[in-house]
Design goal:
The complex is a heterodimer of chains A (about 110) and B (about 110).
Chain A: E1 5-7, E2 10-13, E3 19-24, E4 31-38, E5 42-50, E6 53-57, E7 64-68, E8 74-78, E9 87-94, E10 103-104, E11 108-112
Chain B: E1 3-6, E2 11-14, E3 19-21, E4 23-26, E5 33-38, E6 44-50, E7 56-59, E8 62-65, E9 75-77, E10 86-93, E11 101-103, E12 107-112
Classes of the chains: A mainly beta (about 110), B mainly beta (about 110).
Chain lengths: ~110, ~110
């Protein structure tokens, strides 16, 4: 158990809908990262937050957004969902924002029908 | 941009066989290097890491050495077990985007008794 929790574990929805994925980092970790894992693209970095502020952006679509709240939990919002958004979404956390070990949550499997 | 290339699988071995999974990277500067393992239905776990040239990371019988001259970080284990069956990901830090990880596509290892 990495100490990172993600909810829900599974999510099934329809095209055009909007969903929110939630992540709670390990106690004491200030950074949260979101990754998408799909069969064709592999594991791709989406976005990082550090202590409530956006720190880095990767291949995140404009339809996707995230935020980190004062209690350090983070939410990833996915809107106008398409079939191709079906994937495993992982959250990871680390103590700092630079060259720290990242601990991964169990992931949320999103299926868009 | 930064990238990671790792050997494609699946790799199928008998118990107690020697394992090598090749990983090479392209990066500006001096990235940190990681191997993560993903067991079926689970999130990613850090297996080992190396942060500077010639460093050797090791854990649970697995080893990898940071070779700057060949930009490689090959994973090795002298005697694999059935319980090592999993997907192995080589990753580097993305210097341009802070500490986000860039992953290889993963190598599936299957060990039979």
């Amino acid at each position: 158990d990495s100490g990172v929790t993600q909810t829900p574990k599974h999510l099934i929805t329809a095209t055009g809908q909007r969903v929110t994925l939630r992540c709670s980092p390990r106690s004491g970790d200030l950074s949260v990262y979101w990754y998408q894992q799909s069969l064709d693209q592999g594991l791709q970095f989406l976005i990082q937050y550090y202590n409530g502020e956006e720190r880095a952006k990767g291949n995140i679509l404009e339809r996707f957004s995230a935020q980190q709240f004062p209690d350090l939990h983070s939410e990833l919002n996915l809107s106008s969902l398409e079939l191709g958004d079906s994937a495993l979404y992982f959250c990871a956390s680390s103590v700092g924002d630079r060259y720290n070990e990242q601990f991964f949550g169990p992931g949320t499997r999103l299926t868009v029908l | 941009g930064d990238s990671v290339t790792q050997m494609e699988g699946p790799v199928t071995l008998s118990e107690e066989a020697f394992l090598t999974i090749n990983c090479t990277y392209t990066a500006t500067g001096y990235p940190s290097l990681f191997w993560y393992v993903q067991y079926p239905g689970e999130g990613l776990q850090l297996l080992l890491k190396a942060t500077k040239a010639d460093d050797k990371g090791s854990n649970k019988g697995f080893e990898a050495t940071y070779r700057k001259e060949t930009t490689s970080f090959h994973l090795e284990k002298g005697s694999v077990q059935v319980s090592d069956s999993a997907v192995y990901f080589c990753a580097i830090t993305a210097n341009q985007a802070g500490t986000a990880l860039i992953f290889g596509k993963g190598t599936t290892l299957s060990v039979s008794s």
